[in-house]
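ok so I'm stuck.
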Amino acid sequence: MEVEKIVALAILIALASGGVSGDPDYHDALSKSLLFFQGQRSGKLPPDQSLTWRANSGLADGSAENVDLTGGYYDAGDNVKFGLPMAFTTTMLAWSVLEFGRWMPKELNHAREAVRWGTDYLLKASAPLPSALYVQVGDPNADHDCWERPEDMSTPRSVFKVTPSTPGTEVAAETAAALVAASLVFKHVDVGYSKKLLQTAKKAFAFADRYRGNYSDSLASVVCPFYCSYTGFQDELLWGAAWLYKATRNSSYLSFAHSLGINYNSETFSWDSKIPGAAVLLARESVVDENEAASGFREQAERFVCNVLPKSSSVSVNYTPGGLLYMLNGSNMQYVTSTTFLLSTYAKYLKTSSQTMKCGDVVVTSLRLRKLVKKQVDYILGDNPSRMSYMVGYGDEFPRRIHHRGSSIPSFRLNAEAIGCDEGFQFYYDDKPNPNELTGAVVGGPDENDKFTDDREDYSQSEPTTYINAPLVGTLSYLTASFRPRERCLSVKN
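replied:
not stuck anymore, here's the structure
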């Protein structure tokens, strides 16, 4: 009988622990995914900073032009503040709160804090409008030649901006989207701040529209090859207009979105490609609110769904043998998290309106989309051929040697002596696990054959980014409500 007790107890422990042996703990993953953003903070850290291995950094940012550009987020494992991915990250954090905030009650304040850390910076960057918009702090070429903690940065903190004569429509329109989405987040909790965000968003959008041009042309030497805009600026104008329409209900913004004439298939939603996101955002007007003026966007949104849905007659993406959506070799997980966010959102719209859609002869229900989302997120959290969680700090097995300067070098709080540009590479090439856990960070992920090398030098697989995590916040909140762990009770006979 004692053996039976031990076996039953072992089963209970395995099931309760979640992860690959049972139902994933989506709430735990959600908490960790938000904690990650604390590790990416630039500027003066608040007293309640939980990742205490980080310290203040970039406190003189903007001084090159006598402006205050402190704060904001480092985009990935480097120490540069790139405006385009930072603004997209902020937009997606805000959208996560707007769509799924009611399912993250214990984490809602943390999610708002993550949004505000981004918008506080973006407001500073937008202060010179309509004459200029600051879009980057840090020389990326010099930064990428160094391996330094953010607290030790010795590379130039150069400041870059777009102006009427050197335009950057993509980054200006994305900044507008971030500010307006955040204005909705704070609409009922900080009215004054919300109004300021919306007013600044309108200025940023007007600037983007009036002075049209690719920011990767104007600032090619410092944004390429890091964050070149490969899709042009039309999609960002659509994205910004969609958010302004959602916030203001001013039909001129919906008319503007229609006037762009964007109507083609796309399966990629990312910091660079906004068409699927804008289509899903505007599709709500048709699906839920029955606004015929938005029916064209519903059609585009459903084409996107069919493009990524397995067994759809129009599926145009690949999946690994283990079932992971696979689009590109570099940082593929960003497309997994952004796609699953849109699928979660559209599933919610279908559920709310008690509707289905079709991909050819395939009937697509809200439940079918939720199951696909769950499969992708479960893969991230450890239900994959490698039995590896790709979120740092979640589960027993996760990447230990991520491509991240601050995580890989002993903490400033333990060793306050500066570690120089070249000196830091001793930690880059060291095969030991990183000394500081960047909890919640989701890395670029495995290759097309589900193979993953926990190698700091392989940045395409091992580097985390803010725009991988930001969409996942909303999706995890959705799964927390949609797939609650089953209550299990095992009786043990005496």
